[in-house]
Amino acid sequence: MTAEIGHYALVLALALALVQGVVPVWGARVRDAHLMGVAVPTALAQFLFVAIAFAALTACYVRSDFSVINVVENSHSAMPLLYKFTSVWGNHEGSMLLWVLILTFFGALVAALGTNLPETLKANVLAVQSWVAAAFFLFILLTSNPFLRLAEAPMEGRDLNPVLQDIGLAVHPPMLYLGYVGFSITFSFAVAALIDGRIDPAWARWVRPWTLAAWMCLTCGIAMGSFWAYYELGWGGWWFWDPVENASFMPWLAGTALLHSAVVMEKRDALKVWTILLAVIAFSLSLVGTFLVRSGVTVSVHTFANDPTRGVFILAILTIFIGGGLALFAWRAPLLKQGGLFAPISREGALVLNNLFLTTACATVFIGTLYPLALEALTGEKISVGAPFFNSTFGPLMVALLIAVPFGPLLAWKRGDLAGVAQRLSAAFAVGVIGIAATFAYADAKPVLAPFGVGLAFFVMAGALTDIAERTGLFRLSLGTALARAAGLPRSSWGTACAHFGLGVTLLGIVGETGWSAERIVTLKPGDAVSLRHYDLTFDGLAPRDGPNYRELVAKFTVHRGGDVLGVLEPAKRSYPARATTTTEAALMTRGVSQLYLSLGDNNSDGSVAVRIYHKPLVLLIWLGALVMVTGGALSLSDRRLRVGAPKPASRRDVLQPAE
Amino acid sequence: MTGVGTAEAWLRAFFFAAMFLVSLLASAPARAVEPDEILPDASLEARARALSHNLRCMVCQNQSIDDSNAPLARDLRILVRERLKAGDGDDQVIDFLVARYGEFVLLKPRLAWHTAILWGAPVFLLVAGAIILFAFARRRDGAAASAVVALSSQEQARVSQLTQEHEQ
Predict the structure, then answer these.
(1) How many Å apart are CA B4 and CA A363, to the nearest integer?
(2) What residue ranges of chain B have pLDDT lower than 50?
(3) Which of A276, A518, A654, B154 is 20 to 30 A from A543, comparing alpha carbons?
(4) Does the domain made of B31-110 have the CATH classification 1.10.8.640?
(5) Which residues 14-73 of B are in CB contact (within 8 Å) with A?
(6) What are the tens digits of pLDDT across the range A127-139?
(7) Where are the domains of chain B?
(8) How much is the pLDDT for A446?
(9) Would you say A401 and A357 are in contact if contact means Cβ atoms under 8 Å apart?
(10) How many whole angstroms separate alpha carbon A290 and alpha carbon A99?
(11) Confidence check on the interface: ipTM exceeds 0.85, yes or no
């Protein structure tokens, strides 16, 4: 009965979505408040029904109801309870259900919180949101129904893919989807503005918190996915330029650009058309990402099932929304008036430069990801585009952008003074140069570029601190005044500095890991010792162990440094009988922000085992930096300006601003 | 549950048990570079590793042969090392592999006509974007300049009057 309730609730949600997609738009055209008002209750009810459907599927999983095909294929009664919950979205059908759950959740949030939105804008936004929802409801109901039953229920399920049996599955997909789907809100706002043919700074102020929230979730999701790959896949890589990773990275790049251009639009009423275009593009790339992952065009651990009809269906959704969005843009965008003049050297100019680099980087990733598919379809030639390509194209673009990052926030609006800013950044330059010199002097400077990477990371971090020091007058004014000014500084300024600082931290981690990683690959017998850098490891032996739904062979290593015992590492190899698969469980030891990483290879009949030992300096900074960036986003999101509803132009500003 | 269903469940359980045994007995897949592959000559080994990073394991999803645990990747790693031991230069090894497996084996495609768009796009987009922005800035400057209308003599007089008042 539970599955049927879920199925029925989903059908009702589709019906509501169709109503919500039509009536409010009509109401906005004829200016009928009642018709427009339909959107709010339908948006709330839609979310309620999808939540019921999701709860129903979850119940099927938790109770291990093996009469439901989806549960049979992806669950096992012996699986720990947490994984029974997470396996709800550890498969194609369930993950699409999670997708629409988040989509309708955001729709309900706009309906509930948008009380001070202009009425027509709100009606249009909710309607557009509903078109997207309706398309995905149809997709689920017609091609990927998670509630289908089996005539004869088996005794046991086929278990979840062992690679997915990890806490990572609890965090990574929901976060990523919150990000992807969060951009649907900005998309809906952009399309609504285009339908209205009107857009003003108030629009940007509405859109910015949504973009920011989506961006934060996406950042978390990508960082979590990268960390998960790092410890789960067993060779310590953290970014592979895999098409599926790129699929999540492209919306992130476009979203980051959008975040910056929305600032210009909000503060200076400029870059309107561009901001709208980016809003359309960010969500389009989210849809492209969904297509790449779900259609099976690219096969990977993320692609749960391969079914051409699904690919075609998503491609149709993609064409309608991206094509429709861009066509509407081409048709209506000329109506939007440009405002806000600025000189090339100015804060606006810096943000435009940021957008130029981010969109070029995004396009590079896009072309690199799809080029092999296109080339094969057109000429039949098969080529590969992998990490070395992206490193040598995306890398330089990012280096150029990172050099510019500290300059941006220090430039004045409208007309900036580059020489003055460079002078104020002299301390940050000095820190960067010291970083380079110190790295050359003290570290094993074999990779020539790595010390410069360290210098750049230091420069970016010091630049972010300079920004705060300049704003508060630290070192210029008395400490008391500086503290008072720090307290009065808008949270968005803290957010900017924090996010840019995080960027530097991540860069430092990347440089440390790629520049100075060390590895040893050896075969050891029990009692053998091996050393890597300043760590000595002894292999104590192998022992079998039983888990809830797996068996594992655990190797025990004692780690010494000097004469001290630092701890025990237990890498393992697991076999999951239900799927007849084995996974390698790496063992990690954290020392500061660096890690010692052990993973097992073959074990031989004489009791010896192949083992790969890595020392990864600064590796944790890669993800800590991402967390710092997200914290920056949260600070900015908590800014009073964004919390207080409809913005009113500050009268003080009007007086102070010179006439244009 | 029917009798047939029970029998099926038993069969399934038996099948799983068998698979489990097979998975334990069969040697687990090799994981990336194995100890027995490593060349005694450190500089040759370093070259082999550097080459491996840029070569695709053709049966894998976007993995280099250095990362992959597939048997094919192992064969390729050994092949690369054999060529290096025979005295091949890096380029010769790459040429050999491309001749044998096609360009698909390269993770970094060669610059040629069919990859011109791929390699050219980042540069082209950056330059084109910069030119468009520059053109926009010029047009805007022009618009701003033409939007500024000179003050009339009356307004000019009023301005000087106001500044005088202000200075007093």
Answers:
(1) 57
(2) 1-30
(3) A518
(4) yes
(5) 16-17, 19-20, 22-24, 27-36, 38, 53-54, 56, 61-64, 67
(6) 999 999 999 999 9
(7) 31-110, 114-167
(8) 67
(9) yes
(10) 10
(11) no
